[in-house]
Design goal:
The chain has a two-stranded antiparallel ribbon. It is rod-shaped. The protein has helices at 2-8, 18-37, 43-55, 62-77, 95-100, 102-109, 113-144, 153-185, and strands at 9-10, 13-14. Strand 1 (9-10) and strand 2 (13-14) form a beta hairpin. The chain folds into two domains: 2-92, no CATH class; 114-185, no CATH class. By secondary structure, the chain is mainly alpha-helical. The model has no long low-confidence stretch (mean pLDDT 83). The longest helix has 33 residues, at 153-185.
Length: 186
Amino acid sequence: MEKNEDELIVGGYRFGTVADAETARMEQKKIANVEQHLDYHKPQNVLLVYNKAIDNRVFLTPLGMSYLHRMQQQMVKCGVPKEKIKPIPMYATFSNKTENNSSIRRSVTSRGTKVEFKGRFITSVCVNLLLAAALTAMLILSFVSDVPTIVNYRTAVENEYSEWEQELSDREQAVREAERMLEMSQ
C-alpha cells in the first residue's frame, strides 16, 4: 500500500488518482525542459512562453500552476507591466468544497448578495410590467382594428362573403330586369 501511496505523490502534492499524478509528472518534465531553454533575463521571451502555456493549456495541475505563478513574479521583477500579464486560469471548480464550509458560506453571504437580489427583483418587476402593458396594447389594437385578426377573422370573412352575395344578387336582379326590358321592346 505504501508503494501505491508513493505513486500519488508528485512534487509535494498528493493527487487523488494515478492518472492525475502521471499528468503532474509530465508537467514536471515540461517545466524542466522550459527551465533549461528559457532565458529569464529576456522578459519578452518569458512573456511569450507564459502566454503560449496559458493559451494551449499546457499546465493543469498545481505543479504547473505554481510554475506559471513563478513566471508571473519573474516577469514583474523584470519590469513587465501587470496589464500585459494574463491571469492564470483555473480549470477546476472549488464550489462543492465551499458549500460545505460554513465560514466561507457566511463570508459569501455577507458580501452583499441581498443588494444584488433586490436589484434583480426590481428589474424583473419592471420588465414584467412592460410586457403586461405591451400585451394589453396588442389586445386593444386587435379588437379596435378593422384589419381581420385571428380573434375576429371568422366574422370578417362571413361579412365579406355576405357583401359579395348581396352584390351578386343585385347584379342578377339588374340583368333580369334588363332582359325583361329587351324582351318587351322586341
